[in-house]
Amino acid sequence: MRERPSRTSPYSVDVVLVTAMGNELAILLTRGSTERERWALPWRAPQTGETLEAAAIRVAEHALGESPIWTEQIGAFGDAKRHPSESEISIAFVGLVPHETASPTAGYTWFPMRDLPPLSPRQRAIVEAATRTIQSRLDQAPIAFRLLPSTFTLSELQQVYELLLGKRLHKASFRRALQAAWLVEPTDEWRSEGRGRPAQLYRYAPKKRRRPHRGVRFDFLFP
Amino acid sequence: MRERPSRTSPYSVDVVLVTAMGNELAILLTRGSTERERWALPWRAPQTGETLEAAAIRVAEHALGESPIWTEQIGAFGDAKRHPSESEISIAFVGLVPHETASPTAGYTWFPMRDLPPLSPRQRAIVEAATRTIQSRLDQAPIAFRLLPSTFTLSELQQVYELLLGKRLHKASFRRALQAAWLVEPTDEWRSEGRGRPAQLYRYAPKKRRRPHRGVRFDFLFP
DNA sequence: GCGAATTAGTCACCTTTTGTGACTAAAGTC
DNA sequence: GACTTTAGTCACAAAAGGTGACTAATTCGC
């Protein structure tokens, strides 16, 4: 099932598989067989007739035995940076995987994002772009909800958001915005997690559409 | 200078060149030489050692004699849709060009976005993605300002925003947000455009950085 | 058993942002 | 001079967002 690197393949599909591992984000890496001691993103030379996204999903299935709960293309990366596959360009995807159900198959290991081994320049650029892609999609798609089990506490949800956004959020603001969006509904279960007061469990149950009703923003970062 | 279509090329760089033509957005198309009566996006089979973005800029220079004022990669498009170049995948770029200075070379024509000729399915998908890319970048980069001459009236600027966003904006809100962002400064010139009161001319002169200071948003379009 | 510590959940207050109609100003048209 | 047209500004209300402080329910140490 493991495809061999085809040195003549003009492009590869590289996938950044991201999970919330405890208190940190982690991505899946594999030891590059073609290169000495280097770690690399899972990748694949897509077969003809195969959709790019389908190729990305197959990479994930091969590495984890499961498909991601959300996938998005990051873009094409060429720019004369070396790549393990020696392909000219990489079409990069990002995929999110709940950590509970995702157990890497042989040869794949989770690495915390804050402490990655050396990667090829191109793949490092891909990982950085993956972070930006996740963050910019976070308010447009319910990707954080699917990183959690089907029921979860609001504190857990907030922790996932803080992890993905890379910043702390105020509890009251977070819950107020969540309520206004009609995205979750409470179950009648509670979970006592050791110390403090037990938390009510919620499930993702979106109820109403948001009106995309806003004017312009001028949020330029560099003038 | 016109590169010939290489049938063995594994991928092509396709460019959506967008301009504000009077009251409408327009994109540049060329008559596909390999296909009977079809129009197509300008494209190029990139040379080895050439950056993807450099290839896109060269496409623009070849078609317009000028490089775009803003360029961004849209992504890679494969998905078994036919393409004039018969390449397996297209790396798509979007580029913005001021209409005043951009005169197409032979074989290239501006088409209003609302009335495009039939394109290949893949290129139609690329054009739609280009629109989304522009709209999502509009509040993060000063691309609207560079579509205009160096001095412009605030009404002209608002019209460009309305064109790119595809929706009307309220005059007072637009100007209030613009002032808060410290992006323009008035000149001491005025322009009388026929009918009503003359408008003051402004120039793009960004002064201060915005704080990326905001909580979460739950703006999902489909639950 | 009891107070301290810890986590969950909510409220109230205030500031900022945003939508919007109405207003004044300066030009042309008739 | 009255009317039309475009520019530019104001002020009010509503909505969104930041924040500290409060109550509630549990465990831990003693």
Following the backbone from N to C, one meets helices and strands of chain A in this order, namely EEEEHEEEHHEHHEE
Shape of chain A: globular
Indicate the percent of residues in helices of chain A.
Answer: 25-40%
Largest sheet of chain A: 7 strands, mixed
The separation of the N and C termini of chain A measures 50 Å
Structural classification of chain A: alpha+beta
Give the mean pLDDT of chain A: 86
Compute the CA-based radius of gyration of chain A: 19 Å
State the helix count of chain A: 5
Strand content of chain A: 25-35%
Quaternary structure state of the chains depicted: homodimer
- Kindly state the number of beta strands of chain A: 10
**Unreliable parts of chain A:** 1-8
Describe this structure in words.
2 copies of one chain form a homodimer. Chain A has 223 residues and is of the alpha+beta class. Helix content of chain A is 26%, strand content 27%. In chain A, a hairpin with a 7-residue loop joins strand 2 (24-31) and strand 3. The longest helix of chain A is centred in the middle third of the chain and has 17 residues, at 121-137. The first copy, chain A, is globular. The relative contact order of chain A is 0.15. At the A-B interface, strand 5 and helix 5 of A face strand 5 and helix 5 of B.
Task: Write a short abstract of this structure.
The structure is a homodimer of 223-residue chains. Chain A is an alpha+beta fold and 223 residues long. Chain A contains five helices and ten strands, in the order E-E-E-E-H-E-E-E-H-H-E-H-H-E-E.
